Sequence to fold (308 residues):
Amino acid sequence: MPLTCGKCRSANVEVQIPYARMSLCSKCFVDFYLARVKKTVEEFKMFPENARVGVAVSGGKDSAALLHALRRVYPDLKLVALHINLGIPGYSDHCQVKVEKLVDILNVELNVFNLQEELGIKIGDFKKTSFKNKLCSVCGTIKRRIFEEMAVKAKVQVLATGHNLEDVAGVMFNNFLYGRWDQLARLKPVLPPLAEGMASKVKPLIRSPENENLLYCLYEDIPFREIDCPFSKRTGVRKRTEILEAIAKHNPYFKHQLLNRFLEIIPLLENVSPKPPLGRCKVCGFPSSSEICAFCKRTSLIKRLDKA
Ligand code: SF4
Ligand code: ZN
Fold:
């Protein structure tokens, strides 16, 4: 019997959704994708009424799909795209061009932070420090901080990021193996603001698998980066994500199951690892649980190099 779309019954089946045992045509896939984004936003009450929402866009497929989907699902939502140019040769400018194309198509305001122009540092500078083999880790710390600051400057109440199902399931698995309960709690779909006047952080794609974000971009002709970051590494988290993929081959619903169990135990996690109230960094005044925040510790390494 020829395969037909599980929704409209047309014969143009293009996408298999193994965990839902469903085959879809391209149009029904796009509807299915958008409906899940909407359901996730509403399930976790991500956007308070009249909120101005910032979307952290890297130029990659996940955040590009997120910005596009939010515009489609919520045409009246006040959206602003936030992008950081990390100064990575041959990569960062390419990403910025893709982001500029996307916001043009969607008619969304764009704020860009150029790391080199604003702070005089580039991610590659960290090759000369003890972080030389951990550029992604230092890059992550810097991006998290800059996006927090950009969100305040852009006066957004919510900052949405493109973390997908595999990002969350992979990091979850890793933190679980090492018993890092406080870091596990950071994977929650909604994180409250670090301090008054700052934005809450939300993950509307937490239920969206990576390959479906890619398909959505392809079907909707969304511009996204075509090259990989030259500093990208096969990290421990990525290796463990491959383990999850291997299990998912036998049980396509596995990653969703993992996420669902995680969502169930979130309230318990907060009791297992109560957080000390955040103080302020002595150097920059940003909310921090240590005297000097992770951002200042890292950027001071580059400043010291400049002085040497
Ligand atoms: Fe930063 Fe690593 Fe991503 Fe490159 S691959 S942009 S260094 S986090
Ligand atoms: Zn600081």
Observations:
- The chain has eleven helices and ten strands.
- Strands lie at 15-17, 22-24, 52-56, 78-85, 109-114, 158-160, 190-191, 200-202, 279-280, 287-288.
- The chain has a mean pLDDT of 92.
- Residues 281, 283-284, 286, 292-293, 295-296 surround zinc ion (ligand 2) (CB under 6 Å).
